[in-house]
């Protein structure tokens, strides 16, 4: 029997990389991740990557939209996709015996979509509705607008959904131009987690992906290098006030990334005992939603704290947030505090990896961007060696009050 924790790798002659983890379960997961997202768009193309992600389900050279959707749905499988600032992913969860059927369909919609004009116009209306729906949710909209503030003038700051003005200009020709410019085989990874022999998996993948013409990405992304702290306030017709405070942080390949994740978890991670939750919600009852987040990109990262509260409590809430940041800048964690924080983080990671779909997307992204994947054991080892001195150093850099940007949605 294969070692269940083992990652197996292969590269097709056209440059498409493959990563597989054997897992003894009836349900399997696989997908293709393409290193193309919102940051690869020109200003006139804003929203294109996400638009294409919608349209690949609308018909191929041999399937109409209904047949694309039914091909896996008819056997109880789940087909889905997402677009981020840096990647586009099409993935599926299915019974193990449908590996061939799943990979054939993913190949078909990735490389043979025809983008019917009728579907293009219909999907524009769908995404315009999605954009308007998003604007009705300030707790979601504020995160994207905060990144626009932090990455002002850089492609990383653009909204994934795009905007209505650019969306209306998209047609089949501009879609195919974007794909030709940005979808390259050396920037694609097929990932799999399931109960299948690796050699058999390679045979199936080779059958459906091996004849795709080789293409090498000719450009390098524009790095984000110029950050300046900004405070921006907007008045909106909403019931609550919303606030995001944050800074740029470490990129995906930075050795300090794991330490930053741990520090973020201590401050405002999902645990009810995070410092922000205890301080603002449990002790003072000021905010139902209070959290901190850390997102990595290939050349930078972003850290933020979000809170929603009543208008009269906003300034006090912000003051308490800044107080918690100051504590982490001024006082090193004790031995017991650090030990507990590490054990909590390790436990959370183990639970998240219980979802094999989460694991699929995690290993696929890691292999795509770093050309390697660390096991959970290796990640845990990196967590265990983090020192209190390192966390203090990071806190003084990332939580520097003079380097924090702030975006506030006030109620009128």
Commentary on this structure:
The chain is of the alpha+beta class. It has 2 domains: 7-209, Cytochrome Bc1 Complex, Chain A, domain 1, CATH 3.30.830; 231-411, 2-Layer Sandwich (Cytochrome Bc1 Complex, Chain A, domain 1). It is built from 15 helices and 11 strands. Strands 1-2-6-3-5-4 form a 6-stranded mixed sheet, with helices on both faces. Strands 7-11-8-10-9 form a 5-stranded mixed sheet, sandwiched between helices.
Concise structural overview:
With 412 residues, this protein is of the alpha+beta class. The protein is 44% helix and 19% strand.
Summarize the SSE layout with pairings.
Elements: E1 7-11, E2 17-22, E3 27-34, H1 48-55, H2 65-73, E4 78-83, E5 88-95, H3 99-111, H4 117-135, H5 138-150, H6 164-167, H7 172-182, E6 188-194, H8 198-209, E7 231-236, E8 241-249, H9 257-268, H10 275-283, E9 289-296, E10 301-309, H11 314-330, H12 335-352, H13 356-370, H14 376-384, H15 388-398, E11 405-411
Parallel strand pairs: 2-6, 7-11
Antiparallel strand pairs: 1-2, 3-5, 3-6, 4-5, 8-10, 8-11, 9-10
